Structure formats: structure tokens, C-alpha cells
């Protein structure tokens, strides 16, 4: 098992309150696992706790209760001992790239950070080709690229250290529908070619069903359904059924 999330709770103090009892509960007893090479989709509406869960998995925050393990090690310990082996692609591709960096510098940043300095130019060229971009964009700046191109650059950066696990946090939400389809196709190919494992966080059921092997439905801080993407028509929870019914005119 690559990732195990066990009975995780997370709450925050309410803004403006000084009483320790005044807590906003965000995650309530979350448990699931992801096997190596699997793509698991996490779907939920705004405020359901998706981004909070991603921050916990990335080691940026700690749960109040429960535990998160990667390859049977606590997540923070694993990240420290396996630098560059977990990556993330965020929704906002503009704020997640330094506007003063060229495309080459954006993609090379993690490799340089983790002391992988050999043949940087050649590696960046290879990564650009892998994500379907021309080598000619290497010396351009983020503002000179389209949204779809810049998100591909962010994906190239995410895979530059050959990670075992990638968190895609609303990574296609800001893109046009036609570009979303292209990026999903790219992510599928990269998963097959590089044998990577994904947690794909989104609020679009069609996108999740298209890319993922397994789908988790997160509602008000709880996982209300955990089901294979091939079996979505048999969801039981009211929330999952509502989402499914909203896209039924379309193919999932």
C-alpha cells in the first residue's frame, strides 16, 4: 500500500473566538488507502474539506487525531527521507509559478532543490516533449503562455524528480473544457508511462470518472462513498446519487 489515511480528524479555531471549545470541524474520521499505480479521485463541493485533506497528505499540516502513512511510514518522516518523491499540481497555475522565471527555470526548480543538477537543459527539453510542449517555449515566461500550456509546465515540473506520488489539487478546474480533456489525456498517458500514483482532487464527477480507478465522495468532512469508477451507477449515498444524476445526460 502506498498511502494510508486512518481515522483522520481536523478542526480549526473559529475566527474571532478565544475559547478552546469553539472549533470548526473540517474532517471527521477520514479513512482510505491508495495502492501503488492507482489513481484515486476525491470529489466534493467547496467547503467539504478536500483542500484540507490534501494539505495533511502533503505534510503541510498535521491532523488533530488519526494518522497518515506513506509506505508504512508517518507522512512527515517519509517526506523527509524521500525528498522529491511526492509532488503537487495546484489549481492556480499562475500563482504557483514564479513570473520572473523562464519555463526552463520553473521546471528545473525542484531538480536543483534536490541536488539533481546534471544535464538540466536536456532534462527540461525531455520533460517539455513528454507533456506535449515544444522545446521552443523553454525561454518564455509564464505570462507568454496560455493557461493550458502553463498547466502542462506545472505538470512537467511535478514529474521532474520522478515522484512516486502526485497530488493533483483541482489541477484542471481553471481550464476551459476542451483543455481539461487534453490535460486528462496527458495525465493518463503519464500515469501509464511512468507508473505513477495519483490523488486527483476535483469537484467535477465526469473528470474524476474519466481519469480515476476509484472515487471517494467527500461530504461535510466525511467520506460518504468509496466506489470503483466502473461501478458509479450503483452509488448508495444521497450525495453521490445527486452528483451522479446531475451528469446523467452525459457519458461517465
UniProtKB/TrEMBL annotation:
Keyword Metal-binding attached: no
Family label: Belongs to the ABC transporter superfamily.
Entry keywords, A to Z: ATP-binding, Nucleotide-binding, Transport
Domain ABC transporter per the UniProt entry, residue ranges: 3-245
Matching Pfam families: ABC_tran
PANTHER family registered for this protein in UniProt: D,D-DIPEPTIDE TRANSPORT ATP-BINDING PROTEIN DDPF-RELATED (PTHR43776:SF7), TRANSPORT ATP-BINDING PROTEIN (PTHR43776)
Name of the molecule in the record: ABC transporter ATP-binding protein
GO biological process: transmembrane transport
InterPro entries: AAA+_ATPase (IPR003593), ABC_transp_ATP-bind (IPR050319), ABC_transporter-like_ATP-bd (IPR003439), ABC_transporter-like_CS (IPR017871), P-loop_NTPase (IPR027417)
UniProt-listed Gene3D superfamilies: P-loop containing nucleotide triphosphate hydrolases (3.40.50.300)
Gene Ontology molecular functions: ATP binding; ATP hydrolysis activity
